[in-house]
Design brief:
Elements: E1 4-9, E2 13-18, E3 21-26, H1 29-41, E4 49-53, E5 56-60, E6 65-66, H2 78-92, H3 104-120, H4 126-136, E7 146-148, E8 157-160, E9 163-167, E10 174-176, H5 178-186, H6 193-200, H7 206-226, H8 237-243
Antiparallel strand pairs: 1-2, 2-3, 3-5, 4-5, 6-8, 7-10, 8-9
Length: 247
């Protein structure tokens, strides 16, 4: 009998692996509905939906391995990273999903609230938060909405033989800023940005990508701490914020 492997678990959702099947259990079925519809619309490889019985969604495992993990060096080749960039571009060129994403005002308000909490609770030094909030401002500008994955981090992109075999975890998919996806992919792996952009094949504003690194990290710290994860680990979100103090 195949063993049950806990991939991730917290009080909002859990993902289990049993053989070649992933079982995603989510307390919010709206997220699952978005995930299923987004995968059906996406023009890039996604996991096969095997069955759905709320609150469980069963997905087939993808071939290959994740592009990497935050806080660890990636062994994937430059070609594989470029392939991830090309997949992002194909998604961003696709027709928009029918549901909206977060508005600029919503993101700014959320960001300001998290910054205030981080300082008030002495989770991070005030100067670190202030500097990254200043950097983040470059991202808070009008953008042309595209079909975004919304959580396009390296653990969600699977590759094999330098080709993308699939992208997982589509519950945050929506209309959004293309550069947010590129920033999510390269968070903590800034040295891979050139490879990703080579595959993406379009000129981008690097200051905006750096700004989204700050936004994503500032927004993540409290959630990670409260759900038993460690954003202070080497190469993770707090180190990303510290890097912005140097330029």
């Amino acid at each position: 009998m195949p063993q049950v492997q806990v991939v991730v678990a917290h009080n909002e959702r859990a993902t289990l692996r049993v053989g070649d099947v992933f079982l995603k259990i989510d307390s919010d079925q709206t997220r699952t509905e978005v995930e299923v519809e987004a995968m059906a619309m996406a023009p890039i490889p996604t996991p096969e939906v095997l069955w759905r019985e709320p609150p469980v969604l069963a997905l087939a495992a993808l071939p290959g391995t994740a592009l990497g993990r935050l806080g660890e060096p990636s062994s994937a080749s430059s070609t594989a990273w470029a392939a991830a960039g090309a997949a992002a571009r194909k998604l961003h060129d696709a027709p928009l999903p029918p549901w909206p994403g977060r508005s600029l005002d919503e993101i700014a308000a959320h960001l300001d609230g998290e910054c205030a909490w981080l300082v008030a609770k002495n989770v991070l030094p005030a100067d670190l938060v202030t500097r990254n909030r200043q950097v983040a401002e470059a991202a808070l500008r009008p953008w042309r909405p595209v079909f975004t994955h919304g959580d396009f981090q390296i653990t969600h992109v699977f590759v094999d033989d330098d080709e993308v075999t699939g992208v997982v975890d589509w519950s945050e998919a929506a209309r959004g800023d293309a550069l947010y996806d590129l920033a999510s992919l390269t968070l903590g792996h800034e040295e891979r940005l050139d490879d990703v952009l080579a595959g993406y094949g379009a000129d981008v504003d690097l200051d905006v990508i750096r700004a989204w690194w700050s936004v994503r990290s500032l927004l993540a710290v409290r959630w990670l701490v409260e759900h038993g994860f460690d954003p202070f680990s080497s190469g993770c979100e707090v180190d990303v914020l510290r890097a912005r103090m140097c330029g």
